[in-house]
Design a protein that fits this description.
Blueprint (H helix, E strand, L loop, with lengths): L19 E6 L14 H9 L5 E2 L4 E2 L5 E6 L7 H17 L3 E6 L6 H10 L4 E5 L19 H9 L4 E6 L4 H10 L1 E4 L5 H8 L4 E6 L21 H11 L5 E7 L10 H17 L2
Parallel strand pairs: 1-4, 1-5, 5-10, 6-7, 6-9, 7-8, 9-10
Antiparallel strand pairs: 2-3
Length: 283
C-alpha cells in the first residue's frame, strides 16, 4: 500500500510503521437533499495544513503518533453496492495489517463498509454514533441502501444492544419507536454518553460522526442541515469522554459538503474534530 501525494497533516508515516490508516471514501450517490460530500476528503486534506498537528486541548501532537494517509479510493459514483465492496476490501487490508481504519466520507452510507469488515474480526463490536438524524429507516424511496437507512443496515449486521446514538433530533416517529426496542438512542443531547462509555470501556468500539450533528450556525457545510445541534465545545466534551475507551477499532467522519460553506469554516471544524478524535482514541 502506497501513499498518494497529498496527506492530512500529521499522517506522514509509512504504511508499515503506522498504527492507524486514514483514507477518503468520497461517495454520495444516495444523498437525498444536497449532494457534494464526495469532495470532503480532498477539502479536509488541503485545509488540515492550516489547523496545526498539535492539540492544545489534549496537549498531544499527531506527529507523535505513527499515522498514514492512503489518499482517496476511486469509487463508482452511480453504483453503491460496488462502492461499498471496494471500501470494505480496502478496510480488510488495513485490518489484516493490524492497523486501525480512519475514514473520511462521503455520505453516511459508507460507514456500513468498515463495520461489516470489523464485525468479522470482532464479534462483540459496538457502535457509538453522533448525528442529527436517526438513519434507522428500513428503506428510503424504495431503497434499502441509503444514507437514511445506514444505521438500520448496521443493526442488521450486529443485532440488538450494539447501537449507541446521541444528539439525534430528526427522524420519522416510527424510527424513534423502533429505537426504543433495539438501540440506545438519546434525543438532542449526550448526557448518557459517560454511562455508555463505562459499559463499553474495554469492548471493541467503532465511532461514527455525522457532521450534521453540529448546529448549522456552526457547520452549514452539510447536505442535510438540521437546526438544534451542538457546538464545537460540546464536541470537545464528547471526545474527552470517548478518550476513556480502551479499544477503539475504527472511526469515521462523514457528510461534510464543503461547497455549501464558501467561508471554509465547516471544513475547519471537520478537520479539528478529526484531529481531536484521533489524538483522544488512538493509543
Amino acid at each position: 500500500m502506497k501513499a498518494q501525494n497529498n496527506c492530512f497533516i500529521g499522517f506522514e508515516a509509512d504504511f508499515k510503521d503506522a498504527s492507524a490508516v486514514l483514507f477518503g471514501a468520497g461517495f454520495d450517490g444516495t444523498t437525498s437533499f444536497k449532494p457534494g460530500a464526495r469532495f470532503a476528503p480532498s477539502a479536509m486534506r488541503e485545509d488540515s495544513w492550516y489547523i496545526e498537528s498539535y492539540s492544545p486541548y489534549f496537549d498531544k501532537d499527531l506527529e507523535e503518533l505513527n499515522l498514514f494517509d492512503f489518499g482517496d479510493l476511486e469509487l463508482p459514483y452511480g453504483d453503491k453496492k460496488n462502492a461499498l465492496r471496494i471500501i470494505q476490501e480496502h478496510i480488510q487490508e488495513i485490518i489484516d495489517a493490524n492497523k486501525i481504519p480512519i475514514m473520511i466520507g462521503g455520505e453516511h452510507l459508507v460507514s456500513l463498509a468498515p463495520i461489516k469488515a470489523l464485525s468479522k474480526k470482532y464479534n462483540d463490536l459496538h457502535i457509538i454514533h453522533f448525528d442529527a438524524h436517526t438513519d434507522l429507516r428500513n428503506e428510503y424511496l424504495g431503497e434499502a441502501l441509503s444514507h437514511a437507512t445506514v444505521l438500520r443496515r448496521i443493526y442488521d449486521q450486529l443485532g440488538d444492544g450494539r447501537l449507541n446514538q446521541f444528539c439525534i433530533r430528526s427522524g420519522l416517529k416510527e424510527e424513534f419507536e423502533w429505537a426504543k426496542e433495539h438501540s440506545h438512542l438519546e434525543k438532542f443531547t449526550y448526557e448518557t454518553l459517560e454511562d455508555r462509555v463505562e459499559i463499553l470501556i474495554d469492548k471493541p468500539v467503532y465511532i461514527t460522526i455525522d457532521l450534521d450533528v453540529f448546529d448549522p450556525s456552526v457547520f452549514p457545510g452539510t447536505g442535510t442541515p438540521e437546526p438544534g445541534g451542538i457546538d464545537f465545545h460540546d464536541m470537545l466534551k464528547i471526545i474527552k469522554i470517548l478518550s476513556r475507551l480502551e479499544n477503539v477499532v475504527g472511526m469515521d467522519v462523514v457528510e461534510l459538503s464543503p461547497k455549501y460553506d464558501a467561508s471554509g469554516v465547516s471544513t475547519a471544524v471537520a478537520c479539528k474534530t478529526l484531529r481531536e478524535l484521533v489524538l483522544a482514541t488512538i493509543k
